Amino acid sequence: MKVRIKNWTGVASWRWIANDDNCGICRMAFDGCCPDCKLPGDDCPLVWGQCSHCFHMHCIVKWLQSQTVNQQCPMCRQEWKFNNK
Amino acid sequence: MSLKPRRVDFHATWGAIKDTIKGVITLDHVPRSVWNDRFSDVYSLCVAHPEPMADRLYAETKLYLIDHVGKLLSKVQEDGEQNLLKNYFLYWSQYSVGSQYLHSLYLYLNQQHIRTQKLSDAEIIYGSSDSSGGLQILVQFEKSSCNVCKRYTKVLHTLSDIYRYNDNSFNLTKVLLHIKGLQVLALFEKSVCRLCSQCCKILTSLFEICPCSDTICNINKVLIRFKGEQMEIGELALEVWQSGMIAPLGQKLVKLLLEAIDQDRAGQTLSTSIEAVRGTILSFVEVQGYRKKGQLQLYQELFEEHFLDASGEHFKRDAARLLQEKNVSLYMEKVKAKIEEELFRARRFLHVSSLAKVSARCEMHMVAEHLQFLYSECMNMVQGERCKDLSNMYDLLKGIQNAITVLVDTVLDHIKTQGLAAIGNLQGENIHIGFVENLLAVYKKYKKLIQDVFKSDQNFMGALDKACSSVINHRPNQGKSPCRSPELLAKYCDTLLKKSSKGISESEVDEKLAESIIIFKYIDDKDVFQKFYSRMLAKRLIHQQTQSMDAEEAMINRLKQACGYEFTSKLHRMFTDMSVSSDLNNKFNAFLKQDNIDLGINFSIYVLQAGAWPLGQAIVTPFALPQQLEKSVQMFESFYHNRFNGRKLTWLHHLCQAELKLGYLKKPYVVTVQTFQMAILLLFENADKLACREIKDTLQLNPEQFQRHVVSLIESKLLLADTEELTPETVLKLNMEYSNKRTKFRITAAVQKETPHEVEQTMNSVEEDRKMYLQAAIVRIMKSRKVLKHNLLIQEVYAQSKKSFAPSVQLIKKSIESLIDKQYIERTPHSSEEYSYIA
């Protein structure tokens, strides 16, 4: 072998893939964070429902807590279930 | 003897007392027994039956003292003017001590009789509504120029004289009736004189009490208000001295005193001893020492005023004489000495309260009146940095209001000129080092100068700040070119924090970084600095060029201290990503081991959060991954997606790097290259010669990237090209004869340098950020204010953004316009100068 790779240090960046740019609850960008957080990233994650809608985790949890009767997705009114695939 | 009140023969007792007083006041020998007897005599008079004779005793004592001081006065004057001071001082020393003894002799009278009538301290200090009018009204009458007052002074004198000897109220009533007959009251009432109206009040109350009342005590109280209060004997003695001795002699004494001081100034021996001069001057204070308020009044009016005026004249003459030499530094030298000398003199002769006045007067005549003369040399002194002169100048000017500003401004200009000169002609590779270190040298030099010469005066510290900030934010070419300071400073930090900085110990690096904060604080465009700094930090972290993580972190903490949390939050997130990535690497390796997967290479990765890193979006280029890496990349992607739901990974190949082992040469070499270079080299695995077009097509690189990396490989002599210019047809082959002294080396890619293109890009992104920042600030402000005038809005925006950059009004206006377009705010209908928030 003429040339062999000894080490390789890769660099990659990550961003959220969501079907929308903004959180439907707080209207802030998914690249940013929910209004209660200071910094985006691991501390302010996104979550997906089984209805495929996506929100800041803090936002949807707040919303669900404020709902007394049915726990519904604020976008499509289906019953909210976390999509834990 | 008995303490019981009894009948006392006043004349006999007073006769005895009088003899003893004479002995006491002249400091003659008074035997103990005699002293004791007289002490009892005073007591017995005060408590005499049927009527206490304290007032009479007081009046007689006063008369005696007046008589005594009168005699002393003629003695003092006896020896002519040349001995006046000496004699005055002699008798004063005797009298002042004697009067203190006398005070003790009359202890009973003082404490039991006089103090009870006295006003309380509080009344004296804060004044009381009705006592102030009557106090010493007779004395005031004598001085008054009002005709009514003059006419009745005599009557009132009679009144109080009668009081002095009165045994019954009958006489008093008679006098009062007499006054009534003269219709004094009516006259007083008509008069416009303030004194008359006061007197009127008192007389009215007197008339009300008098004819019908047989208690003399009330009348006494009223009368006391006419005569002035009775004083304790010690005070009385001093008061008598003041009116009997200082009043007639005062002017003469002052004249002699001033002459004596002039003699002292001229360096002649004094014709009177220093002690006598000082003693006489201080006697003006001591004679009013019993007063609770205005103790220095006599001293100030009689002596100090004249002294200051005379001194003022002297200073003027002196200044005029010194000015003839036309030498500023010499003049200042002499004036300083003069002030010192005068203060020394004042300390020797005068009361302490005069010290400040003397030096102020001296400064007024010798400095304040000749400011222009002093300023004339100011420029040269500052430019020559003549420390001694500057320090003299500072000492002289600081006492005079606003005089220092000219000096401050001159210093400011000088520092500015020096600063600009220090960074003006920098050239070559290491401009950034020269820039920061020269500036720091200027800063330190003048800071020290200000500390030493100007005693760290706030005015000068302010000037230093202003000068530094204008030097650092200076825009060359009349403000047309952008200011490069943020970039240069960031580069300077980069150089220090990079691995390559050789020969400098860690503590030195730390020190230099700490100092660079000084410059940082003066930078207006802190956001530009942040941009450059974060780009360089990103490069250091990704390319593992960081010298020490501790130093990096310390620097970020310093920036945080200077500029706040928000400023460094992105930098902190970059650090977090580094540690998260190393964690991720460990987990990935564990995962590989568990599943028994061999990637064929040593794989590690940095996963960066897109928003936190200054990566730029445009740089993601098409690239066909070499098959040797495919497995690793795929494995990692699936590993990552399993762990983190909903995240998209983007590979940043231009930032990846590899270590290659070259096995085709005489010696094995280990080279560190970028991914693109690696990919090019890997193609030669199966071929000896490749045309450029082939390489490009296989790797799908864009021409620009391809060009750059091929050139870097040719320049490092790993590849050989058969033509000078690279064309698609150029054939490349491996250099089989390659040799290098080192077996481990790095191909420095052109991309690692900050290209002008990149600088421009940075500036553009700064511009974008600023727009967003301003718009956010405007929305915040308008949201809380609802309606705001244009100018106020601009002011507030400016105040908010000042921390990280100084926005131009134009930029703010643009942001307002774009917010109006986006319908966040609107112009209020009735005024174009006002905006309102649209909720």
The major β-sheet of chain B equals: 3 strands, mixed
Cα distance spanning the termini of chain B: 102 Å
Determine Rg of chain B (CA atoms, Å): 48 Å
Report the CATH architecture of the largest domain in chain B.
Up-down Bundle
Integer tally of domains of chain A? 1
Output the helix-strand order of chain A.
Answer: EEEH
Q: What oligomeric assembly is this protein in?
A: heterodimer
CATH architecture classification of chain A: 2-Layer Sandwich
Radius of gyration of chain A: 18 Å
Low-confidence stretches of chain A: none
Distance between the termini of chain A: 43 Å
Q: Major β-sheet of chain A, in short?
A: 2 strands, antiparallel
User: What is the 3D form of chain B?
Assistant: elongated
Any idea of the CATH class of chain A?
Alpha Beta
Pfam family, one (chain A): zf-ANAPC11
Domain RING-type (chain A): 34-77
Family (chain A): Belongs to the RING-box family.
Keywords (chain A): Cell cycle, Cell division, Metal-binding, Mitosis, Nucleus, Ubl conjugation pathway, Zinc, Zinc-finger
SSE layout and pairing:
The complex is a heterodimer of chains A (85) and B (839).
Chain A: E1 3-16, E2 46-48, E3 54-56, H1 57-66
Antiparallel strand pairs in A: 2-3
Chain B: H1 10-25, H2 32-46, H3 54-78, H4 84-105, H5 107-117, H6 121-126, H7 131-134, H8 137-143, H9 147-165, H10 169-181, H11 184-190, H12 194-209, H13 216-227, H14 233-265, H15 274-286, H16 297-323, H17 328-349, H18 355-366, H19 371-384, H20 387-397, H21 404-424, H22 431-453, H23 458-472, H24 476-479, H25 485-497, H26 506-522, H27 526-542, H28 549-563, H29 565-594, E1 602-609, H30 627-643, E2 647-651, E3 657-662, E4 669-674, H31 675-683, E5 689-691, H32 692-699, H33 703-715, E6 719-721, E7 731-734, E8 744-746, H34 756-785, E9 787-789, H35 790-801, H36 809-821, E10 825-827, E11 834-837
Parallel strand pairs in B: 4-8
Antiparallel strand pairs in B: 3-4, 5-7, 6-7, 9-11, 10-11
Helix pairs in contact in B: 1-2, 2-5, 3-4, 3-14, 4-14, 4-15, 9-10, 11-12, 12-13, 14-15, 14-16, 15-16, 16-18, 17-18, 17-20, 19-20, 19-21, 21-22, 21-23, 22-23, 22-25, 25-26, 25-27, 26-28, 27-29, 27-34, 28-29, 34-35, 34-36
